[in-house]
């Protein structure tokens, strides 16, 4: 049993895949945090387009 545990602890197969998985997960969390919600990129884009729409409505020619 000791030999099996020693061999398991020395075996590094699959470690790289786990590391890449952790990196991908952290990147996904960072992207969601940056883009999601009204405080991130989404909120900034909404505010920018709302300002543009207001300017277009204000400066639209009268019918």
TrEMBL record:
Record key words, sorted: Membrane, Transmembrane, Transmembrane helix
Q: Which InterPro entries match?
A: Flp_Fap
Record's keyword annotation contains Transmembrane helix: yes
Record has Transmembrane helix as a keyword: yes
Q: Where are the transmembrane segments?
A: 20-37
What is this protein called in UniProt? Pilus assembly protein
């Amino acid at each position: 049993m000791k030999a099996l545990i020693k061999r398991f602890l020395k075996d590094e197969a699959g470690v790289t895949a786990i590391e890449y998985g952790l990196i991908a997960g952290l990147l996904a969390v960072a992207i969601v945090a940056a883009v999601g919600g009204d405080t991130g990129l989404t909120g900034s884009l909404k505010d920018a387009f709302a300002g543009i729409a207001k300017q277009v409505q204000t400066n639209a020619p009268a019918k």
